[in-house]
Design brief:
Two copies of one chain form a homodimer. Helices cover about 35% and strands about 20% of the residues of chain A. By secondary structure, chain A is of the alpha/beta class. Chain A has two domains: about 140 residues, Thiolase/Chalcone synthase (Peroxisomal Thiolase, Chain A, domain 1, 3-Layer(aba) Sandwich); about 220 residues, Thiolase/Chalcone synthase (Peroxisomal Thiolase, Chain A, domain 1), CATH 3.40.47.10. In chain A, strands 3-2-4-7-1-8-11-10-9 form a nine-stranded mixed sheet, with helices on both faces. A two-stranded antiparallel ribbon of chain A has the order 5-6. The first copy, chain A, is globular. At the A-B interface, helix 3, strand 3, helix 4, helix 5 and strand 8 of A face helix 3, strand 3, helix 4, helix 5 and strand 8 of B. Strand 3 of chain A pairs antiparallel with strand 3 of chain B, so a sheet runs across the interface.
């Protein structure tokens, strides 16, 4: 495959953007990324979003955003795979360049969740689960993740407080990220006292409803020197699926989509988990972080939470995760999250991650998960 | 670019499928296409759909359909660009093969519109238009097309009955297509007497709300001989955008997205409109067929309707369109339509189009339009 590089990144702060519309958020991150790259023209815009049709009453975001940002006429499409939409769109952008169809492509993830009542947003998010077998039974995503977490605790004899370090690490890192939603550290006490959302899941296990947009500019590596941005190479791009419904898996504690997606990525890059310096994973709930670490080969089955307990996920430890706050504390604007992850790994590889910079980071990985693991997109980047 | 061929096609009849769910419709067309191609495995499934999130309460269709059809684990994503989603997904599939990421890819368009109240469906379809500037004023797609048609009639002094031959041609051809929704011919009298939907647009100018699924199997041309299907080559794939809102264009009677998309396709294929033997265009409303013929270079500005009036759009005439019934009479299951168009052009190029076979068809074109022209995807195929 023709080699592709990331040459520009842009993002809005994640949070409550009452004064900005969906397309204005997209404009902000696209403009920042295009300026960062020093690009004037590009061939295609790939947009990722999940719930705008249901919440804002606006589909057809590709053409809408291309036009609003001043690029009327260029090719544009929307890619959706629930919360993995951002990763899927980045992959589509990479393949468009690898195919030779375009030399420079822009990928923008955008989500505006707060414009609607929270009940409606929770309902819209639940359309990522199996409507006939999960949602019709009244299960939303907190409930589905609670089933997995409860089973995990039972199977591996893990107490409630063992998950606290995931949330504490995410919040501690978010303090230093100006674009994070929750820039405050939390104590173990605060974690333990936080309200239950769907037992055993509490508020501090859960990523928030929020607004945000992130953008990357991609180009063929052979022309990357023409632009202003420092190129970061795409070493691997891979996607895999699993059943939507949790109960439909052979083993609800083995994330098969994670395993397949990570395996495919390692194979493409010729790397192993030991080579990864920083890993932006999909901690929509603490249990997902645990299972992602296990499925991606950083821990044995039933041992993922130990990495957090033993302090191995901090920026200067063995496998730094959520270095900019993760989904928990940077925030999880669902369709945009996968693009935020790539932006943040690029910051790490450029050495622009400030107080949570991973020392001498050379290779970074992102993993974006849709639903409770039905779509998984993994990227490995290197400088 | 690595050359790509279509090696398998499948479709369900378009119509009212009360007894089948969205994923069952997709299963039917995917199974038919995979059998037609003689393919056992493939690398990725691209799904196109527009309104399932709003109407069925189910997003995340890529993984859902991959799993339901027995392909759990493979890569899958959904592509959306309103009514052009099918064309966008076919293009994504082609680029995935051209990039070298996969050798064989399946593209499935599926839409189930009838499960909901028609008001809700009309509202869901309107999310393809500009929510802030068109839909908030109460405009649905019939109203938006009526504005364009009225302006066209005023500008070029065209009477109401001049559009009748588009509908008559589509219905006459649908009689011979077992998968068409309306298999009956209509007279000019019936056209003129049909109820107005949004004057000057009447029922016979308008494509119907319906259910359906169509699938194509694509592979790298160099390995096409390994499979059972007769390969049809992709000679060009191109996409372009315009503003979502009709009033926001410099000229609402020039489809700039159509012109750009067609120009890019002709350039890639090294062809001109005179080389096209059959053209499956996007006749969501008669006025769209007119403007598509003009924007694609088959008629001068203000002259597209004359091709229909003069009998030049019939299967044995100068530029056959809607040879299997078109959106008007085959039906327009919105997110699936672009894939139906490719399936039908493949039927023509294989010589499998029965009574409406275009004699000695060698080169066929499809054009899938989202909204009132904001996304346009054009494909040229050849044998």
């Amino acid at each position: 495959m023709r080699e592709v590089s990331v040459i520009g990144i842009g993002q809005t702060p994640v949070g409550e953007h009452w004064e900005k519309s969906l397309k204005e958020l997209a404009y902000e991150s696209i403009t920042a990324a295009v300026q960062d790259a020093g690009v004037e023209q590009f061939g295609a815009l790939y947009v990722s979003n999940m719930i705008s049709g249901q919440v804002t009453g606006q589909m057809h975001l590709g053409a809408l955003i291309a036009d609003f940002c001043g690029y009327r006429g260029i090719e544009s499409h929307l890619i959706e795979s629930a919360c993995a939409s951002g990763g899927s769109a980045v992959r589509a952008g990479i393949l468009a360049i690898a195919s030779g169809a375009h030399d420079v492509v822009v990928v923008c993830g955008v989500e505006k969740m707060l414009d609607s009542l929270s009940d409606r947003v929770v309902g819209a998010l639940a359309t990522a689960a199996d409507a006939e077998y999960e949602v019709d039974q009244g299960a939303n995503f907190a409930a589905i993740n609670a089933l997995a977490m409860k089973r995990y605790q039972y199977e591996f004899k893990v107490p409630d407080d063992a998950f606290a370090p995931f949330s504490m690490n995410a919040h501690a890192n978010a303090v230093h990220n100006p674009n994070a939603m929750f820039r405050f550290a939390i104590s173990k006490e605060r974690y333990l006292k936080s309200a239950k959302v769907a037992p055993p899941i509490n508020v501090m296990d859960s990523s928030p409803i929020c607004d945000g947009s992130a953008t990357v500019v991609l180009c063929a590596s052979e022309i990357a020197h023409k632009f202003a941005g420092k190129p970061i190479k795409v070493l691997a791009t891979a996607a895999a699926t699993d059943s939507l419904a949790l109960h439909d898996r052979f083993d609800m504690l083995e994330m098969r989509g994670v395993r397949l997606s990570a395996q495919r990525a390692y194979e493409q890059a010729g790397l192993t988990p030991a080579d990864i310096d920083v890993f932006e994973l999909h901690d929509a709930f603490s249990i997902m972080a645990t299972l992602s670490l296990e499925g991606s080969g950083f821990a044995e089955r039933g041992q993922g939470y130990r990495l957090a307990l033993e302090g191995e996920i901090a920026p200067h430890a063995r496998i730094p995760i959520c270095t900019r706050g993760g989904l928990k504390a940077r925030g999880h604007p669902v369709g945009a999250t996968g693009v935020y992850q790539v932006v943040e790994v690029v910051q790490q590889l450029r050495g622009e991650a400030g107080a949570t910079q991973v020392t001498d980071a050379k290779i970074g990985m992102t993993q974006n998960i849709g639903g409770s693991g039905a779509t998984v997109v993994t990227h490995i980047l290197g400088k």
